[in-house]
Amino acid sequence: MATLASGTNTTMAVVMLVLILIIVSSFSVAVVADAKFIARVCKNIEETNGHCVEVLRSDPRSFNATSTRDLASISLDIATSTRRDIAKGIDDEASQHDERSPIGEALIDCASYYAYAEQPLEDARESFDKGAYREAMDGAGEAEEAGDRCEQAFSDRELASVVAALDERMNQRCDVAALLIDLLFVT
After folding, report:
1. Confidence (pLDDT) at 24
2. Sign of the alpha-carbon dihedral angle for 72, 74, 75, 80
3. How many domains does the structure of the chain reveal?
């Protein structure tokens, strides 16, 4: 009787192990399939210099997306979150400089550009949710100007930008959002 119970336990253990392996392999296949979906959608917008996949992979929700619209929506959220993070980063950087110094003045300008970019992104989200994709795309494009204007604030003062990487990040995120939204006119 003990041998029969021991054999049943071993059989159950093997069955459980097989079920776990099936579940894990199914999940792995789904992630690979989702990564391929992201790459396939991003391939339609070559202008991003390969940043589309990188941007979308930064948000785990992208791997659950089932449509271009889902990815465009997520990318708009990424751009909005990026604007918030960069605005904080610029404020942190500004706190390390005298506001009357050329760098301090440039950072104050940058802070105002990023603060201004909040409204176009909010408008873009509202438009996107209503299906007004042209307006949503325009809003993401308008927000992208924050990075360009910030860089110009340093250039105007003949200074090297201390936030160039942040500005480039903003440009990439907003560019990807605008271009993915643009795809919704075609798909």
Report:
1. 47
2. positive
3. 1
